[in-house]
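Narrative of activities, Objective 1.

The group set out to show that a structural description can be obtained from nothing but a protein's sequence at a throughput compatible with the screening campaign. Below is one input-output pair from the validation batch, recorded exactly as produced.
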Amino acid sequence: MKTEERRIPSSDGIHQLYCRVYIPDGNPMGLFHVVHGMNEYIARYDRFMREMAREGYVCYGFDNLGHGYTVNHDTELGYIGTWKMMVEDVRSVALQMKKEFGEDLPCFLLGHSMGSFIARCCASHKLWSKVIFMGTGGPNPISGLGMGLIKQNIRMKGDRAYSPFIEKLAFGSYNNRFREEDDDYAWLSTIRKERDKYRNNKYCTFHFTLNGYQTLVKLQSMANSKLWFKSVNARLPILLMSGSDDPVGDYGKGVQEVYDRLKRNGKNVRMKLYQNCRHEILNDVCHDEVVQDILLFIS
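Output recorded for this entry:
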């Protein structure tokens, strides 16, 4: 296999998306698109993407707007633009990869965390053969209140400002179940070494702007709307994957709700929770099992 770096124009008309492509030896079996989550970047998926390429898939992904090497300057970290831009970037890059590597190849989509909400908003597009929503969540009962507070803060401070209050409202409870570990990032993984790598990386620990939170809440709202559950193609195979101890998925309850609503709407969905694992199941003790389950699902 070989790896390549690309710069692909973003739908915002300003940035060049930093893209990594992992190309297998021989004829590829398919295209596998990875959409990363909030406060991270695509290089964190290097191990997984190499594994997918070794299995014969062209595996690719890019740093989302406001993340990683897509920003023109570190001061732009956490400033996203709009949720529609994030969705359009996924679609346009997928079309470009399909054109380059083969129009007839099956195209698979995986989104993690915030990336799962982006991927869910992309799922109605006919590009995808199968989709995987990892570390996703159900409706947030305070999203309406949160959006109101965000808009109020934007009017006072501007959308590039940072609000500690909004950040605490969004994530303040995530570590409650893991307080005995005395680690603010305990909710991410059971493996301390993985949490330390995250903690010591400036592309993981920056603050989201008010614009970033506004975009996140909008993505969550769109992905959990009645329209979304109805609009997904009933023939599209969907896999929900989450740690049983992931607070983003409300410790399985939110993921179960998404599964149940998809089922009630006649969708082709399956779900797996990884016991005693947390938010980043690709960086937890279940990594190998997760990879094998993905390969089985798309094969």
